[in-house]
C-alpha cells in the first residue's frame, strides 16, 4: 500500500480531486484520515449480516478503490451475495477492479463508472454510503437519499458514514482539534494537515447529526440510529420498513 504524501509539498493548494494520484494512495489516506476505520468496517459487516440472504445485492455508492465491498466479500466468504460499487472517478474504478482480481469470487463483484446521483439502481437489500454524501451539494442530498430509499427492498438498510459538524462553536472547535491530533498521531505533518484542509474547504460540507438524521427520516427510513461515533465522525443505519399486509 503506497503511503500518502500528496500534501507534503510547498506547491500551492488546489481543490481536492479523486484523480490518479489520489487513487494510488487512497487506501493509506483512508486508514490514516478516518478514525477507527477498520473497526467501523468490521461493525458494518456484522450489522449487515442479519439483513441479507442468498443472492441479495449490496451497493457501495462512492466506492472509491473498493475497500469496503472487498472487506464485505471477505467477511461473507462463499455466500452468494452480489456486490456492486459505483464511483465517478475512472482512476478509483480502475484501482478497485485491479484489487478485485485477487478475489476468487470475482463474478460476484462489479465496479462501475457512473454518477451515483443519476445512475439507475436495481432493487437491493443494502446500500453503503460512506463519507460520500458530504461531497454532494447540500441541495442535492435530500433527493438523493429518497432515490436510495426507493431502490431498497422492504426491510433493506442504508449504512451511512459521515464527517459531522456541531453547531455549538466550542464543541465543534474541540472536535476539530482532536481530529488534528489524531492525524498527527498517524504521521501527518502540520503542512499536510493544513493543505488537506484547505483543498477540502469548499468541497466537503458536513451536516450535524440531527440534520443527517432528519434527511434520512424525510427520505422515508422508518428507523434511523447511530451505531458508531468518534467525535466528528459518525455512522448511521437507516431501515426501510417491511411491507405489512392490509386488512380486508
Task: Describe the SSE topology.
Blueprint: H1 20-33, H2 37-48, E1 57-61, H3 67-76, E2 82-87, H4 90-100, E3 109-113, E4 124-130, H5 138-151, E5 152-163, H6 169-185, H7 190-200, H8 209-218, E6 223-230, E7 233-239
Parallel strand pairs: 1-2, 1-4, 2-3, 4-5
Antiparallel strand pairs: 5-7, 6-7
Which descriptors apply to this entry?
single chain, 248 residues, alpha/beta, Rossmann fold, 7-stranded mixed β-sheet, 7 strands, globular
Number of strands: 7
The fraction of residues in strands falls at: 15-25%
Order of helices and strands: HHEHEHEEHEHHHEE
Low-confidence stretches: none
Rg over C-alpha atoms, rounded to the nearest angstrom: 18 Å
| Gap from first CA to last CA | 60 Å
- CATH homologous superfamily descriptor: Vaccinia Virus protein VP39
Write out the strand line-up for the largest beta sheet, numbering strands in chain order.
Answer: 3-2-1-4-5-7-6
Known CATH architecture: 3-Layer(aba) Sandwich
**Main beta sheet strand tally, sense and closure:** 7 strands, mixed
| Broad structural category | alpha/beta
Helix content estimate: 25-40%
CATH class identity:
Alpha Beta
How would you state the average pLDDT, rounded? 93
What does the overall shape look like? globular
| CATH level 3 topology | Rossmann fold
The helix tally amounts to 8
How many structural domains in the coordinates? 1
Amino acid at each position: 500500500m503506497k503511503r500518502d504524501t500528496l500534501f507534503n509539498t510547498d506547491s500551492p493548494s488546489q481543490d481536492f480531486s479523486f484523480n490518479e494520484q489520489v487513487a494510488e494512495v487512497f487506501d493509506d489516506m483512508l486508514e490514516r484520515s478516518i478514525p477507527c476505520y477498520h473497526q467501523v468496517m468490521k461493525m458494518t459487516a456484522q450489522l449487515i449480516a442479519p439483513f441479507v440472504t442468498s443472492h441479495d445485492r449490496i451497493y457501495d455508492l462512492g466506492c472509491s478503490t473498493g475497500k469496503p465491498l472487498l472487506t464485505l466479500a471477505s467477511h461473507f466468504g462463499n455466500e452468494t451475495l452480489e456486490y456492486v460499487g459505483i464511483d465517478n472517478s475512472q482512476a478509483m474504478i480502475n484501482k478497485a477492479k485491479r484489487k478485485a482480481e485477487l478475489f476468487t469470487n470475482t463474478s460476484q463483484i462489479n465496479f462501475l463508472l457512473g454518477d451515483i446521483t443519476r445512475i439507475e439502481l436495481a432493487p437491493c437489500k443494502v446500500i453503503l454510503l460512506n463519507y460520500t454524501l458530504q461531497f454532494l451539494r447540500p441541495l442535492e442530498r435530500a433527493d438523493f437519499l429518497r432515490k436510495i430509499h426507493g431502490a431498497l427492498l422492504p426491510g433493506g438498510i442504508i449504512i451511512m458514514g459521515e464527517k459531522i459538524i456541531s453547531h455549538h462553536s466550542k464543541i465543534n472547535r474541540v472536535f476539530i482539534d482532536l481530529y488534528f491530533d489524531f492525524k498527527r498521531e498517524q504521521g501527518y505533518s502540520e503542512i499536510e494537515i493544513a493543505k488537506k484542509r484547505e483543498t477540502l474547504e469548499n468541497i466537503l460540507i458536513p451536516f450535524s447529526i440531527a440534520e443527517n438524521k432528519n434527511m434520512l427520516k424525510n427520505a422515508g427510513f422508518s428507523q434511523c440510529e447511530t451505531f458508531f461515533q468518534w467525535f466528528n465522525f459518525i455512522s448511521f443505519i437507516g431501515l426501510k420498513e417491511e411491507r405489512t399486509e392490509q386488512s380486508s
